[in-house]
Design a protein that fits this description.
heterodimer, A: mainly alpha, 0% strand, B: alpha/beta, Rossmann fold, globular
Chain lengths: 312, 272
């Protein structure tokens, strides 16, 4: 048993170093002024994590935007906090606790919504603020406020090997699920009634998507933090929605926006010595406003121009 | 003389069905059979439970009680086998979704794709889906929408949207077609086109069941009529069911029902 675990560790270390080496080959193609910060090992780890987090958050954000789940994403991400604290108290890996409380809260929201007269937005507001408050109380008892700040706002420059590995596993799982269940997921987002009529189990699709969302949030915890992961789960998808009328293109664009803003944000945060999570989200927000103004199909400027043409 | 439809085998058999929303009964003691290979119209006032009946048939709602069979087997089996196509009312769909007319209609094939081997499903659509593509092509041709197949669905007019949803149901090539008000809010040419398409579908042996408010259309085209207002108010040939007396009875039942509901509600208030 111990030998197997050791073997697994050696394998995962080798996998991560291999990925980083491949990534560095690409980075070294860039001019030296740009690639310079990535000579540090912590920057290399940060780069790999950011790329993965940007990709899966971007991918999931399409479903979040189209299903109008923004508030649900917000709720799950906050509900993760008490899980982190409880896992620390029980001596478990933090992601197990985070995943459990995140999933429990989303189930609780669904139950309140279905069985009482409370509407879904209120149900979410109550559940996630409650869970978040519990998390803050627990953490104030067991850890320093710097630690709390890292969980809330992320610290991609301090990503450890274990967190990197978790992000890697979560990314592979999320990508595989979306690839294999691409059609049912799209149909469920577009027209759940039709999915049901075709005999798809929409309950499984619904909760599967919520679990996937929880997994993504847990995997992004150390990079952008609980508060800002919500932005990464909404902004890339909303940006892509402004740019295209094809779902596949939207997925790819959204992943591109996610990865691009994660990488650029990481670089800028190093260059100007500012908070990484915030910088990443600011870059994504910048992308959104660019799309809002300049999108050839659904942009504000294009719309104004078309109006003028009609009037003229 | 026994009406012809009743001797034909049933596509859907409903026994002793009860359904409710938030403890408000919507359908009570429904016993119905829809003849196979025929075109049936379901007629009833607004709020009579017609759409609810379809929700039960398509798995969107579980009944309180009762049994629904298709061709003698539980209807869930036929749903999974892709034998039941459903065209919902327009409002149920997210029209802002980034999807083209072609991809929307391809959605009708997803049930069948599930039965294809996994390795094929992983291929890009271009190589994998020849038979599915043919079905989509034909369905779009049938509803005269092939020219617009690259359009995003959000950019279509009301009548065009209906035709695309009909095409999606047709592309499924299912044994049973369930259509919830396929003619509501469409322009007269689209209406004629939809009726002609459904006529052809019936002629090729499919069972067509539609909810409609269009009495002249129903009189002209359908083989069988079901009158519903919470209870089954009649089931039989169009000439009988759509006679002025029958329709007047149905209208009276609607008024009576509103009255009883109101009496019940006021007595409940009085008890409080």
């Amino acid at each position: 048993m111990t030998e197997m675990l050791m073997g697994l560790e050696v394998f995962s270390d080798a996998l991560v170093s291999g990925l980083i080496a491949a990534l560095m080959m690409l980075v070294n193609l860039l001019p030296e002024e740009i690639s310079k910060p990535f000579q540090y090992a912590f920057m290399q780890r940060a780069l790999l994590t950011s790329i993965m987090v940007g990709a899966i958050c971007g991918m999931l954000s399409c479903y979040v935007v189209l299903k109008r789940w923004s508030l649900l994403g917000d709720a799950i991400s906050h509900a993760v906090l008490p899980g982190v604290a409880l896992a620390y108290l029980l001596g478990l890996p933090f992601f197990i606790g985070a995943f459990v409380t995140g999933a429990l809260t989303s189930l609780g929201i669904g139950a309140i919504e279905r069985h009482t007269r409370i509407k879904s937005d209120a149900a979410m507001g109550i559940m996630f603020t409650g869970a978040f408050a519990l998390g803050i109380v627990l953490i104030s008892k067991i850890a320093s406020s710097t630690h709390l700040m890292h969980i809330l706002f992320g610290n991609v420059l301090g990503v450890q090997q274990s967190a990197l590995l978790l992000t890697l596993v979560a990314s592979v799982v999320a990508l595989l699920v979306v690839w294999l269940a691409f059609r049912p997921l799209m149909l469920y987002a577009f027209d759940p009634t039709q999915a049901q009529a075709l005999g798809f189990n929409t309950g499984i699709i619904h909760y599967g998507l919520i679990l996937l969302l929880t997994l993504t949030i847990v995997a992004s915890l150390e990079t952008v933090g609980i508060i800002l992961v919500v932005a990464m789960l909404i902004t890339p998808g909303a940006t892509a929605h402004l740019l295209t009328d094809r779902f596949k293109t939207m997925l790819l664009l959204s992943m591109g926006v996610g990865v691009g803003s994660a990488v650029l944000g990481l670089y800028l945060s190093f260059a100007f010595d500012v908070a990484s999570g915030g910088t990443i989200v600011l870059v994504a927000t910048g992308c959104f406003f660019m799309a809002l103004l300049f999108s050839p199909k659904h942009g504000v400027l294009m719309r104004l121009w078309r109006h003028r043409q009609v009037e003229g | 003389m026994k009406p012809l439809c009743e001797s034909a085998p049933a596509a859907i058999d409903i026994t002793n069905l009860y359904a409710a929303y938030h403890r408000q009964p919507v359908l009570e003691n429904i016993n119905l059979s829809f003849p196979a290979g025929k075109w049936t119209a379901i007629v009833g006032p607004n709020g009579a439970g017609k759409s609810t009946l379809f929700h039960v048939l398509t798995g969107g709602m579980s009944p309180l009680r009762g049994r629904v069979k298709a061709f003698g087997e539980p209807i869930a089996f036929h749903r999974k086998a892709g034998n039941i196509a459903y065209m919902a009312q327009r409002e149920a769909i997210e029209w802002d979704f980034p999807i083209s007319v072609w991809e929307t209609v391809m959605g009708g094939r997803y049930g069948h794709m599930r039965h294809d081997p996994l390795w094929r499903r992983l291929l890009p659509a271009r190589w994998y889906a020849a038979s599915h593509r043919d079905a989509v092509h034909k369905a779009l041709e049938d509803v005269n929408m092939l020219a617009l197949s690259d359009r995003p669905i959000g950019a279509l007019s009301g009548g065009q949207k209906k035709r695309v949803l009909l095409a999606r149901a047709l592309a499924q090539q299912a044994k049973i077609l369930l259509l919830d008000e396929p003619l509501a809010g469409v322009d007269p040419p689209s209406e004629q086109l939809i009726l002609d398409v459904l006529k052809r579908e019936r002629a090729s042996g499919r069972t067509v069941i539609m909810v409609t408010h269009d009495m002249p259309g129903a009189r002209r085209y359908v083989d069988h009529v079901v009158l519903i207002n919470r209870f089954v108010r009649g089931s039989g040939l169009p000439e009988e069911m759509l006679s002025t007396t029958k329709l007047a009875e149905l209208a009276v039942s609607a008024i009576e029902q509103t009255n009883t509901d109101q009496t019940l509600r006021s007595s409940a208030l009085a008890l409080r």
